[in-house]
Design goal:
Aspartate Aminotransferase, domain 1, Aspartate Aminotransferase, domain 2, 2 domains, 36% helix, globular, binds pyridoxal-5'-phosphate
């Protein structure tokens, strides 16, 4: 065994890192475009993009140049002062979000922190209730965790902040029934990523906007996974034609550099958090802002929104052309896709795919998630789709018409 290889690395990992992530699959040495190379020299096509983070892949010159230049100039200045990078990122975010007059940005370091800011924004309405959706994921801090639905994540840490109600995702009547005079905010993902790429479809967001407006509650959309071009729009809510009261962003925004934000829409909402009511040491630091500006500039300049839409459609078409009934459904939009399988073998498919040189993940036992860099090569991406029947064979995924599970 190579003493600097995967096995030795994972052994040392388990002796030094807290066990919350379990045993990792790989020890990655470096990236090359849309590929990752592990310490044993194996090369993988990165079709999960660090969980919807590496929007420009790995080592994209626009991003690495921006980071290198900013690192040499100024890494950190604190919020005792400001920098041109911070101001420009805020302006750019407001513009791509289509934010109305009076809108503002709070910059932080992660999706969780962005949602914490949203919770504090909701509290400033004077109402303590928050309605979230079943299946939701909003982060792991004790505030964001209260919004996150999965009991296994929440229960070991009870009691969490009070006042949070979960309603079935996509159910307009349930949402209307749960929102009342005590509701400060409704928080929703336009497409639930961790739940398995679930798009409630229809006019759910439009109805959520109507229900919250009628009740005087804020509508907060968690765009941490769906935002920054991943679904083919800058933000997933934009295709619904609504204006939420706030959105939270992170993941793809920095292309791998930690950065998050809360965008408050309009003057009234932006006035809820005032001097001294929130803050961050690292939030809005010039390094993270320079990275995010480079990501936004590249997405815009290289037409990556349209590209994400087109490639998402191409994956759908290729899956349909395979005619394999073990691929039951393709959900999602753009380059946030959930491939629904006929049986709960998705974790095995992830392992088989890895052995075949592809990194994907299984947010739930029947779903394979794809969230590749927006710059992924079309042939590489469709090449993975073409391998799916082999991978499903390798894990003995049953055809839905054959309950015995035997191959037809
Ligand atoms: C990943 C994610 C978060 C948490 O973001 P972190 O950067 O891990 O704190 C919150 N909401 C959604 C929808 C996410 O996908």
């Amino acid at each position: 065994m190579n003493s600097t290889g995967t096995d030795a690395g994972l052994e040392a990992y388990e002796q030094s890192l807290l066990g919350v992530f379990g045993r990792p699959a790989l020890v990655i040495d470096h990236g090359e475009g849309c590929h990752l190379v592990d310490v044993d020299g194996h090369r993988y096509l990165d079709l999960i993009g660090g969980i919807a983070v590496s929007a420009l892949g790995h080592g994209h010159p626009a991003l690495t140049d921006a980071i290198a230049r900013q690192a040499a100039s100024l890494l950190h200045a604190s919020n005792l002062v400001t920098t041109p990078q911070q101001i420009e990122l805020a302006q750019r975010l407001l513009r791509v979000a289509g934010a109305p007059e009076g809108s503002r940005v709070f910059l932080c370091n992660s999706g969780t922190e962005a949602n914490e800011a949203a919770i504090k924004l909701a509290r400033r309405t004077g109402r303590t209730g928050i309605v979230a959706a079943e299946g939701s994921f909003h982060g792991r801090s004790t505030g964001a965790l209260a919004l996150t639905h999965r009991p296994a994540y929440r229960e070991p840490f009870a009691p969490l902040i009070p006042g949070v109600t979960h309603v079935p995702h996509g159910d307009v009547d349930a949402l209307a029934a749960a929102v009342g005079p005590d509701t400060g905010a409704v928080i929703l993902e336009a497409i639930q990523g961790e739940a398995g790429v679930i798009d409630p479809g229809g006019d759910y967001l439009v109805q959520a906007r109507r229900i919250t407006a009628d009740a005087g509650a804020l509508l907060v959309l968690d765009e941490v996974q769906t935002g920054v071009g991943r679904t083919g729009d800058w933000f997933a809510f934009q295709s619904a034609g609504i204006v939420p009261d706030a959105i939270t962003v992170a993941k793809g925004l920095g292309g791998g550099v930690p950065v998050g934000g809360l965008v408050t829409m309009g003057e009234a909402v932006s006035g809820l958090l005032t001097v001294g009511q929130h803050g961050s040491t690292f939030g809005g630091n010039p390094l993270a802002c320079a990275a995010a500006i480079a990501v936004l500039t590249t997405i815009e300049g290289d037409g990556l929104l349209q590209r994400a839409s087109r490639l998402g459609d191409a994956v759908r078409a290729r899956v349909a052309a395979l005619g394999d009934d073990r691929l039951v459904e393709v959900r999602g939009r753009g380059l946030l896709l959930g491939l629904e399988l006929s049986a709960p073998v998705a974790p095995d498919v992830v392992t088989a795919a890895r052995a075949a040189g592809y990194l994907v993940n299984a947010p739930r036992p029947t779903t394979i998630r794809l969230a590749p860099p927006l710059v992924v090569d079309e042939g590489d991406l469709l090449g993975f789709v073409d391998r799916l029947p082999d991978l499903l064979d390798a894990v003995s995924c049953p055809h839905p018409t054959d309950p015995s599970g035997a191959a037809r």
